[in-house]
Amino acid sequence: MSALSRGRLLFGTAGVPQSTLNLGTSTLFGIQQIHKLGLDCLEIEFVRGLKMGSDTAGQIKKASQKYGVSLSVHAPYYINLNSPEEGKRIASQERIMQSARLAEMCGAKNVVFHPGYYGKGSAEEAYECVRKEIKEVISILRQDRNRVVLRPETMGKKSQFGSLEEILFLCREIDGILPCVDFSHIHTRSGKANTYLEFHRILKKIEKKLGKEALKNMHIHVSGAIYSDKGEIKHINLQESDFRYDEWVQVLKDLDVEGSVICESPEQDKDALLLKNLFSVTS
Questions:
Q1: β-strands 224-228, 180-182: how paired?
Q2: How confident is the model at residue 7 (pLDDT cuts 50, 70, 90)?
Q3: DSSP assignment of the chain, as one string?
Q4: Which residues of 223-262 are buried (b: 16+ CB within 10 A; e: fewer)?
Q5: Per-residue pLDDT tens over the stretch 227-270
Q6: 269: how many CB neighbours lie within 10 A of its CB?
Q7: Strands laid side by side in the 180-182 sheet
Q8: Are 73 and 99 in contact (CB under 8 A)?
Q9: Which of 32, 112, 233, 244 keeps 20 to 30 A from 227, CA to CA?
Q10: Three-state SS string across 128-157, please?
């Protein structure tokens, strides 16, 4: 079965795998290495900027189809849909839309983005502002006949907009978006959410809010992390962290979760293979 087929949980990396860097840093090399490693998907990282031409995007689409590698896109980090400055909100919208346009050219179906920060206002005010800005982006993309799925991400710092509840409310209220569920962020944001029962509750909450189909179309981020009472500090490899990934994998298996798991650890390809192999032998 092709990695592009539904009915599976795919495992891959955020950006070009570490084991590819001695060959080159291009996404084309990355796709070939994902296939060589026996992984299934790759997230194209536009986190530092949107630097890709249409010719390159077309080559990436052909390569992903040739090697059976499913693609997604991560929009630039410098997005704040709750900025008090209108110019920064407009620029943030543009970065999301340009990410979606490049995603479509590359054959990627999902665009992950960080919604923004709470700032000096209330969480409720931030929610209303973020919702308004996303709805405008969706409206423009639909006018352009762009059908990529925007995925606001659950965030790991308490200063960032993006608790699980906020992201799920957005997805209920806005057609055309689904969550990017970063389990490491949920864990580091609260210091909890790190047992079989807690992972199970998170997924059942998603199912309750968005329907059973949501668990068949998940986009997941995961890594190890160092964190404080303010939330995430930095990513580390899974085996160096306190994240109970064995229990987490068991829950994914038990609830028949489908979609993509993108590993964001420093050695992301090693951790992606660790998770895929563990998933394949979990009873």
A1: unpaired
A2: low
A3: --TTSSSSEEEEEESS-GGGTTT--SHHHHHHHHHHHT--EEEEE-TT-----HHHHHHHHHHHHHHT-EEEEE--S---TT-SSHHHHHHHHHHHHHHHHHHHHHT--EEEE--EE-TTS-HHHHHHHHHHHHHHHHHHHHHTT--PEEEEBP-SBTTEE--HHHHHHHHHHSTTB--EEEHHHHHHHHS---SHHHHHHHHHHHHHHH-GGGGGSEEEEE-EEEEETTEEEEEE-GGGSS--HHHHHHHHHHTT--EEEEE-STTHHHHHHHHHHHHHH--
A4: bbbebeeebbeebbbbeebebbbeebbbbbbebebbbbbb
A5: 999 999 999 999 999 999 999 999 999 999 999 999 999 999 99
A6: 24
A7: 149-152, 110-113, 70-74, 41-45, 9-14, 259-263, 218-222, 180-182
A8: yes
A9: 112
A10: HHHHHHHHHHHHHHHHCCCCCEEEEECCCE
Q: Considering the domain 9-281 in this protein, what is its CATH number?
A: 3.20.20.150
Least confident of 43-57, 75-89, 151-165, 255-269: 43-57
- pLDDT value at residue 2: 37
Above 60 in pLDDT, residue 1?
no
pLDDT per residue over 8-48, tens digit each?
999 999 999 988 766 667 899 999 999 999 999 999 999 88
Rounded CA-CA distance 55/265 in Å is 30
> Quick one: pLDDT band at residue 194, thresholds 50, 70, 90?
very high
CB 195 within 8 A of CB 247: yes
The CA R_g of the chain, rounded to the nearest whole Å, is 18
Poorest-pLDDT segment among 4-8, 162-166, 246-250 = 4-8
Angle at 249 between CA 247 and CA 251, to 5 degrees: 70
